[in-house]
Design goal:
By secondary structure, this protein is mainly α. It contains 5 helices and 3 strands, in the order ααβααββα. The protein has helices spanning 5-15, 18-27, 34-38, 45-58, 76-114, and strands at 32-33, 61-66, 69-74. The protein has a 3-stranded antiparallel beta sheet with strand order 1-3-2. Strand 2 (61-66) and strand 3 form a beta hairpin. The longest helix has 39 residues, at 76-114. It is rod-shaped. The mean pLDDT is 92. This is Metalloregulator ArsR/SmtB family transcription factor.
C-alpha cells in the first residue's frame, strides 16, 4: 500500500482543488484545448495553466501541443488507480461494520438468552 503512496499523494493533492475537479469532469467527456477549459472559468489563462500543470504533475491528465493549440486529455488509468484505492478502503470499512453488526447481534442474543433486557 505504501509503494503507491507518492502517486496517490500527488493525485489526491490535485483532486483537492474544485477547479481541477471541474477540469477533470470536463475532460471526462473528451479531450479539450486549454482555451476550451479556460472559457468557463473566472480566472486568467496563466492561472488555468497553473492548475493544468498540477494536474499533469499528478499524472491525471496529459497534454500535447500541435501548432499553437495545446490539447489536454484525461489519463483514465491514473484516475482508475485512485478509484481502486478508494474502493479498497470502502470494502475494509464495510467489513469492519459487518463484524461490528455481528458482534452486536451476538450480544443481543446472549442477553436475551440470559433474560436480561437491552
Amino acid at each position: 500500500m505504501l509503494n503507491d503512496s507518492p502517486h496517490l499523494d500527488r493525485a489526491f493533492s490535485a483532486l483537492a482543488d474544485p477547479v481541477r475537479r471541474g477540469m477533470l469532469a470536463r475532460l471526462s467527456r473528451g479531450p479539450a484545448s486549454v482555451s476550451e477549459l479556460a472559457a468557463p472559468l473566472p480566472m486568467s489563462l496563466p492561472a488555468v495553466m497553473q492548475h493544468l500543470k498540477a494536474l499533469e504533475a499528478s499524472g491525471l491528465v496529459a497534454s500535447r501541443k500541435k501548432g499553437r493549440v495545446r490539447t489536454v486529455r484525461l489519463e483514465r488509468e491514473a484516475l482508475s488507480q485512485v478509484e481502486t484505492w478508494l474502493t479498497r478502503r470502502r470494502q475494509e470499512l464495510e467489513a469492519q461494520l459487518d463484524r461490528f453488526e455481528d458482534y452486536l447481534a451476538t450480544l443481543q442474543t446472549t442477553e436475551e438468552f440470559d433474560g436480561r433486557s437491552i
